[in-house]
């Protein structure tokens, strides 16, 4: 299994590297190379991730396996969505795991850790966007109880957006 810790601002270069690599691995083929490169340069730069890490609304965790950084997550507590009736719900904005570490149970471990954080904050659900063509991720979320509650779009550039499912999990199913 992995070791889960909270990244600090000194971890930003490695965290940004994982973010960029994981997004390329999972979404890089979904659009033109220059569109994805521009998105990553803008949204997953060291500076952008540092700003997100310093924003107290965001909760970051990363997971290491055998001493190597394998992935990370970002959740936002009390982040309602129009397709979810409850207001005290958590948005799971990212659950990135490098392909090298797939199949080791690390995504489940990191998700469970985030679920515990949400429970401790009296959240009643977790929602997320997942690209419809990311079949591995959709299957993972369905397996742990998420249901599709709507559709949305992940804007990569002015000329390209990926169709996403909005998925929701009621936390009370885990008490």
Characterize the structure shown.
It is a single chain. Strands 1-2-3-4-5-7-6 form a 7-stranded mixed sheet, with helices on both faces. The longest helix has 16 residues, at 12-27. The protein has 5 helices and 7 strands. It has a single domain (3-174), classed as Aminopeptidase. The relative contact order is 0.17. The mean pLDDT is 93. With 175 residues, the protein is of the alpha+beta class. The chain has helices spanning 12-27, 33-43, 46-54, 106-120, 135-143; strands at residues 3-5, 58-65, 68-76, 89-97, 125-131, 147-157, 160-170. It is globular.
Please summarize what this structure is:
This protein is of the alpha+beta class and 175 residues long. The protein has five helices and seven strands. It has a seven-stranded mixed β-sheet with strand order 1-2-3-4-5-7-6, with helices on both faces.
Summarize the SSE layout with pairings:
Blueprint: E1 3-5, H1 12-27, H2 33-43, H3 46-54, E2 58-65, E3 68-76, E4 89-97, H4 106-120, E5 125-131, H5 135-143, E6 147-157, E7 160-170
Parallel strand pairs: 4-5
Antiparallel strand pairs: 1-2, 2-3, 3-4, 5-7, 6-7
Helix pairs in contact: 1-3
SS strand fraction:
25-35%
Binned, the helix content reads 25-40%
- Tell me the radius of gyration: 15 Å
Low-confidence stretches: none
The 3D shape can be described as globular
Q: At the third CATH level, what is the topology name?
A: Aminopeptidase
Number of beta-strand segments: 7
Give the SSE order as H and E letters.
EHHHEEEHEHEE
């Amino acid at each position: 299994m992995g070791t889960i810790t909270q990244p600090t601002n000194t971890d930003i270069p490695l965290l940004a590297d994982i973010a960029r690599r994981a997004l390329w691995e999972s979404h890089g083929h979904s659009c033109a190379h220059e569109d994805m490169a521009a998105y990553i340069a803008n949204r997953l730069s060291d500076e952008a991730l540092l700003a997100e890490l310093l924003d107290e609304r965001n909760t970051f965790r990363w997971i290491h396996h055998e001493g190597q950084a394998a992935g990370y997550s970002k959740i936002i507590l009390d982040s309602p969505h129009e397709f979810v009736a409850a207001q005290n719900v958590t948005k799971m904005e990212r659950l990135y795991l490098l392909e090298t570490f797939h199949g080791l149970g690390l995504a489940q471990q990191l998700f469970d850790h985030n679920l515990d954080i949400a429970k401790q904050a009296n959240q009643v659900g977790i929602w997320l966007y997942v690209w419809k063509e990311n079949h591995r991720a959709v299957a993972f979320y369905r397996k742990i109880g998420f249901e599709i509650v709507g559709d949305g779009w992940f804007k990569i550039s002015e000329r390209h957006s990926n169709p996403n499912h909005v998925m929701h999990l009621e936390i009370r199913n885990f008490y």
